[in-house]
């Protein structure tokens, strides 16, 4: 039912979900992920098709190290852009920030469409392939997801992560506690951009082609839906949301023409039925507590005389 | 020179009027609930198609019921009003399904972005299933307007009659709405809820009823806009409202969320700015709206005419 | 954003020291992550490329897969293509039982690149003999390389961008590039009025088709020593052209050339006329559909269009196609894109029948059958509703006839036809 190609798309969805999650973990509703995704993808498409030093072969092959280099560069460029833009937009609050980041997505989209070297409406095509089959893309996608997941898991215990959580709960209080809120928010924003940029570089090769349509307003909202439906309080929420919501339209194929109506209903009813999302902290605690209760109980019993 | 200037002003006002109408729909809902209804663009489409059907238009070969149409055919103005009311009802339905359950659970407002978007996806795809993706023009085209000429020439500047009408009707609708909000009991009640729902409740204003009223009115505004646009440029497919919805969002924030005069000023400003883009650079025109928005937000974080709200302590 | 754990549980966790809520949550996250990783691993294993190409070809009917846009913006074209494909299926059944039965499987290729890839992958895994689609050129650049790598023949019914057949040996198309068609209508307009000097050009700047076509138009104009007085760029989603039209009309053009998609084009024509333009209008191939009649109504009258398909072509197969279309969809001529989808099915169907009779489909693996079919497809010629067509060795369509038509609207202004003005052979037509 789910072939490797779709699985790669699901992993890309999970990565983009994480990218939206990171600023949200610091209380910032940023919808800029598709802009950074587009920047990373465009960079990879340009480098691999125009810069022969990366080693694209005549029959459309491409060395894997060059792919990794592109992912790093895509992340770097997106991160730099985020550093630049973040200083400006992160002063905005709530829905104003959301709209300003949507504006960024639209500006980047129009720029990619109009710049003289990005192929205009058709975009860039014949992007060389590091792998012979879709299965090859599973490895870098999984590796990127593992690194991002590990980082998010670690964040909870690191000062940065704690500061992010504090800002999310109450920004004013966090500032009073001496947290440099601007710096923390910017860090989360840049991390999110790096992740989206690297994902874009990978996606450009996977999709064989890249154009301005890849990062759009629609994508802003879909990726936000990943986070909301999956759960925005733990990093696994957006991962699960991204995996499931990317697969859903494909799994709904058997129902035919109404599949997007059903997809819309899921997005509509999901938050109503599960306002916290699928993966909640409570669920994780229960999961973490399994098989543990008995062990601690025994320990307390032994300690008693 | 004067001629060019006047032409630019007319061009800007023509598209700006529509933007204001869209933004005002968002504004009504935002001012009472503090959330953005992402289904607004889809309601725009609904209004356009409803007007078409009420005027006796037939469904094309790719629709669910090819060749089907409502019996008879209403004159344009009546159809437009009924379609506005119909879109208002669909707006109510959106409120019932996508907003009310969240409000009852006291869920965070962020969720409403997603549920309303879901409602929009459902509406647009249902329209596509019912009507197909082809373009529709109104049964009588601009002939519906009676014996008016196709275009007017004002001091050398040209504008299509329908666009001028569109501008006038938008202006009338916007004016009527502002007056109603200022003067009437219902309007004051709505504003009271917008200011402070709890206090309004204490004063005996039924805030749930006011929320529903806001959704009905904003749906009706969208319907009105959709119908008018439909006559002006036909219905280019079920997605046509989404583009206006996105532009309206920029206008909404530009003017200041929840501010009625802000929505109007923002709309006209946006229309004018776009009309000023020379054709060589028209590829960048769609970015202009958002670039302006971006700059305005950086200078005035709450939009041009936005109210300052007290930060929570 | 409030979802702190209930205080009661928090307290009880705090007492147990090493397994406080954060530790539990982290442990839970690790467990769930491990579970997910295992799940993804299992999915990867189950979905590994079980390419059916190595399996022997079964003797039953062959499946043609079509990935066409049934959802999203491109459904505007997809729905017309679906008609063409289903009509072609009916047409193929009329001639009695074929040497090798063919069944058509339609999948939604949607309007975006990932969906087109998913639809192609799905169909290829189901063992289709060949593919038709996807709807948009941008999608073709994403999905076609996948078919190419797995050796599955693709016939594109509507991709007109430069570079599509060059994706690889297995990729071909029946949709002629605009370079061949576009100059003809310019020539016709200038033949009617040789005094034309001032030309205004409009095109949709974010549309792959229009940007390619307008370059051809400009070249054709330049060949006549004409430089446009203005080039107005519009966007695909634009339908209100007040600003570009008024600024173009200030330069008093004698000829307007449009390259935009159908609905926008209809609007552009109507608004040009309403705003007072009276000269000739030449439109691109994207407007070759009766869908524009209801949009520009009486104002459509007199526009010149170069066509890759003429409903008025008087050949048996086109007459039959027209009949089938009118039976199914009412009394109106079929759009070009429907005829092209019909032709895409037809060329594959006929190639399969020839191959079956030659024995190229017996005792071979599916992969070999696909390769044989591709070779057979390219070597044949086909009498389609588009006229006689064949393929270059790269898979580019070689179309024998192109047409220039003038739209003539019926008195009510609600319906009209593309009246054939000129028919042009390949030699004259290809510069």
Short description:
The complex is a heterotrimer of chains A (305), B (313) and C (431). Helices cover 71% and strands 0% of the residues of chain A. Chain A has 305 residues and is mostly helical.
Give an overview in words:
The complex is a heterotrimer of chains A (305), B (313) and C (431). Helix content of chain A is 71%, strand content 0%. With 305 residues, chain A is mainly alpha-helical. In chain A, helix 2 packs across helix 8. The model of chain A has no long low-confidence stretch (mean pLDDT 92). With 313 residues, chain B is an all-alpha fold. Helices cover 68% and strands 3% of the residues of chain B. Chain B is globular and about 55 Å long. In chain C, strand 14 and strand 15 form a beta hairpin. Chain C has 2 domains: 205 residues, Rossmann fold, CATH 3.40.50.2300; 156 residues, 3-Layer(aba) Sandwich (Rossmann fold). Chains A and C meet through helix 1, helix 5, helix 10 and helix 12 of A and helix 2, helix 4, helix 5 and helix 7 of C.
Please render the helix and strand layout as text.
The complex is a heterotrimer of chains A (305), B (313) and C (431).
Chain A: H1 4-25, H2 33-50, H3 64-89, H4 94-114, H5 135-155, H6 159-169, H7 171-176, H8 181-207, H9 217-230, H10 236-251, H11 259-273, H12 281-289, H13 293-303
Helix pairs in contact in A: 1-5, 1-8, 1-9, 1-10, 2-3, 2-4, 2-8, 3-8, 5-8, 6-8, 9-10
Chain B: H1 2-33, H2 40-54, H3 76-104, H4 110-131, E1 151-154, E2 157-160, H5 161-183, H6 185-195, H7 197-202, H8 207-233, H9 240-255, H10 260-276, H11 285-299
Antiparallel strand pairs in B: 1-2
Helix pairs in contact in B: 1-5, 1-6, 1-8, 1-9, 1-10, 2-3, 2-4, 2-8, 2-9, 3-4, 3-8, 5-6, 5-8, 6-8, 9-10, 9-11
Chain C: H1 7-15, H2 21-46, E1 62-68, H3 75-94, E2 102-108, H4 113-125, E3 130-132, H5 137-150, E4 154-156, E5 171-173, H6 178-192, E6 199-204, H7 208-223, E7 230-234, H8 242-249, E8 255-259, H9 262-274, E9 280-283, H10 293-296, E10 304-307, H11 316-329, H12 336-358, H13 366-379, E11 381-384, E12 387-391, E13 397-399, E14 401-409, E15 416-425, H14 426-429
Parallel strand pairs in C: 1-2, 1-3, 3-4, 4-5, 6-7, 6-8, 8-9, 9-10
Antiparallel strand pairs in C: 10-14, 11-12, 12-13, 14-15
């Amino acid at each position: 039912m789910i072939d490797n190609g779709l699985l790669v798309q699901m992993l890309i969805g999970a990565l983009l979900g994480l990218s939206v999650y990171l600023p949200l973990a610091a209380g910032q509703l940023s919808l800029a992920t598709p802009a950074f995704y587009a920047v990373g993808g465009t960079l990879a498409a340009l480098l691999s098709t125009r810069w022969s030093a990366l080693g694209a072969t005549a029959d459309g092959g491409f060395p894997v190290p060059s792919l990794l280099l592109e992912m790093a560069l895509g992340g770097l460029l997106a991160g730099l852009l985020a550093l630049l833009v973040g200083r400006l937009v992160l002063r905005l609050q709530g829905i104003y920030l959301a709209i300003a980041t949507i504006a960024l997505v639209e500006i980047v989209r129009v720029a990619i469409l109009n710049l003289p070297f990005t192929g205009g409406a058709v975009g860039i095509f014949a992007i060389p392939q590091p792998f012979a089959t879709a299965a090859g893309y599973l490895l870098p996608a999984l590796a990127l997801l593992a690194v991002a997941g590990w980082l998010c898991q670690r964040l909870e215990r690191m000062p940065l992560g704690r500061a992010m959580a504090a800002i999310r709960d109450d920004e004013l209080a966090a500032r009073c506690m001496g947290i440099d809120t601007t710096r923390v928010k910017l860090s989360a924003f840049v991390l999110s951009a790096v992740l989206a940029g690297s994902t874009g570089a990978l996606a450009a090769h996977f999709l064989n082609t890249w154009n301005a349509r890849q990062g759009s307003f629609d994508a802003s909202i879909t990726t936000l839906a990943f986070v909301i439906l999956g759960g925005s309080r733990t990093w696994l929420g957006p991962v699960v949301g991204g995996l499931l919501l990317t697969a859903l339209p494909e799994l709904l194929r058997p129902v035919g023409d109404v599949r997007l109506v059903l997809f819309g209903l899921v997005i509509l009813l999901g938050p109503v039925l599960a306002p916290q999302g699928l993966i909640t902290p409570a669920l994780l605690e229960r999961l973490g507590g399994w098989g543990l209760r008995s062990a601690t109980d025994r320990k307390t019993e032994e300690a008693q005389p | 020179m004067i001629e060019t200037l006047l032409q630019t002003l007319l061009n800007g006002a023509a598209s700006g009027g529509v933007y204001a109408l869209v933004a005002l729909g968002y504004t009504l809902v935002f001012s009472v609930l503090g959330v953005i209804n992402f289904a607004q663009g889809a309601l725009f489409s609904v209004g356009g198609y409803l007007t078409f059907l009420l005027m006796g238009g037939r469904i094309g070969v790719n629709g669910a019921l090819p060749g089907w149409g409502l019996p008879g055919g209403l004159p344009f103005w009546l159809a437009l009003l009924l379609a506005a009311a119909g879109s208002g009802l669909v707006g109510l339905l959106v409120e019932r399904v996508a907003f009310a359950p969240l409000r009852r659970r006291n869920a965070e407002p962020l969720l409403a972005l997603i549920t309303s978007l879901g409602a929009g996806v459902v509406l647009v795809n249902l329209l596509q299933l019912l009507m197909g993706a082809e373009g529709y023009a109104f049964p009588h085209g601009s002939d519906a307007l009676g014996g008016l000429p196709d275009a007017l020439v004002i001091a050398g500047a040209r504008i299509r009659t329908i666009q001028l009408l569109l501008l006038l009707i938008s202006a009338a609708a916007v004016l009527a709405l502002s007056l109603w909000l200022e003067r009437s009991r219902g309007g004051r009640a709505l504003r009271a809820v917008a200011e402070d729902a709890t206090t309004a409740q204490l004063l005996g204003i039924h805030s749930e009823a006011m929320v529903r009223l806001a959704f009905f009115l904003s749906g009706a505004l969208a319907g009105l806009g959709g119908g008018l646009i439909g006559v002006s440029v036909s219905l280019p497919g079920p997605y046509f409202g989404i583009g206006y919805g996105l532009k309206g969002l920029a206008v909404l924030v530009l003017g200041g969320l929840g501010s009625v005069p802000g929505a109007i000023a923002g709309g006209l400003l946006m229309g004018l700015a776009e009309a000023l883009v020379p054709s060589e650079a028209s590829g960048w025109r769609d970015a202009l709206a958002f670039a302006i928005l971006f700059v305005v937000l950086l200078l005035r974080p709450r939009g041009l005419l936005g109210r300052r709200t007290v930060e929570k302590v | 954003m409030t979802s702190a754990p209930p205080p009661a549980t928090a307290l009880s966790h705090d007492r147990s020291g090493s397994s406080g809520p954060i530790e539990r949550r982290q442990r839970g996250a690790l467990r769930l992550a491990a579970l997910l990783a295992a799940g993804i691993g299992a999915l990867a294993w189950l979905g590994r490329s079980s390419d059916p190409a190595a399996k022997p070809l079964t003797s039953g009917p062959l499946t043609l897969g079509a990935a066409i846009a049934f959802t999203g913006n491109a459904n505007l074209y997809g729905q017309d293509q679906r008609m063409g494909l289903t009509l072609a299926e009916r047409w193929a059944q009329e001639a009695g039982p074929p040497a090798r039965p063919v069944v058509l499987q339609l999948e939604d290729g949607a309007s975006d690149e990932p969906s087109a890839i998913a639809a192609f992958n799905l169909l290829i895994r189901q063992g289709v003999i060949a593919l038709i689609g996807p709807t948009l050129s941008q999608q073709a650049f994403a999905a076609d390389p996948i078919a190419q790598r797995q050796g599955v023949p693709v016939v594109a019914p509507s991709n007109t961008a430069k570079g599509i057949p060059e994706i690889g040996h297995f990729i071909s198309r029946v949709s002629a590039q605009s370079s061949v068609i576009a100059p003809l209508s310019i020539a016709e307009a200038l033949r009617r009025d040789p005094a034309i000097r001032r030309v205004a050009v409009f095109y949709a700047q974010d549309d792959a088709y229009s940007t390619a076509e307008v370059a051809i138009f400009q070249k054709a104009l330049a060949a006549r020593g004409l430089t446009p007085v203005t080039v107005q760029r519009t966007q695909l989603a634009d339908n209100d052209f007040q600003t570009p039209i008024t600024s173009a009309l200030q330069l008093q053009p004698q000829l307007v050339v449009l390259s935009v998609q159908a609905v926008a084009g209809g609007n552009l024509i109507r608004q040009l006329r309403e705003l007072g333009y009276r000269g000739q209008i030449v439109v691109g191939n994207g407007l070759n559909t009766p869908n524009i009649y209801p949009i520009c109504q009486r104002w459509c009258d007199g526009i010149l269009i170069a066509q890759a398909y003429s409903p008025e072509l008087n050949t048996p197969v086109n007459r039959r196609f027209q009949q089938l279309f009118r039976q199914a969809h009412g009394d109106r001529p079929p759009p070009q894109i429907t005829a092209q989808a019909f032709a895409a099915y037809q060329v594959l169907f006929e190639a399969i029948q020839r191959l079956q009779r030659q024995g190229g489909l017996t005792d071979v693996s599916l992969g070999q059958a696909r390769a044989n079919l591709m070779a057979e497809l390219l070597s044949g010629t086909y009498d389609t509703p588009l006229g006689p067509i064949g393929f270059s060795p790269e898979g580019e369509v070689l179309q024998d006839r192109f047409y220039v038509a003038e739209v003539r609207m019926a008195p009510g202004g609600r319906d009209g036809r593309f009246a054939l003005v000129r028919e042009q052979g390949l030699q004259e037509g290809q510069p």
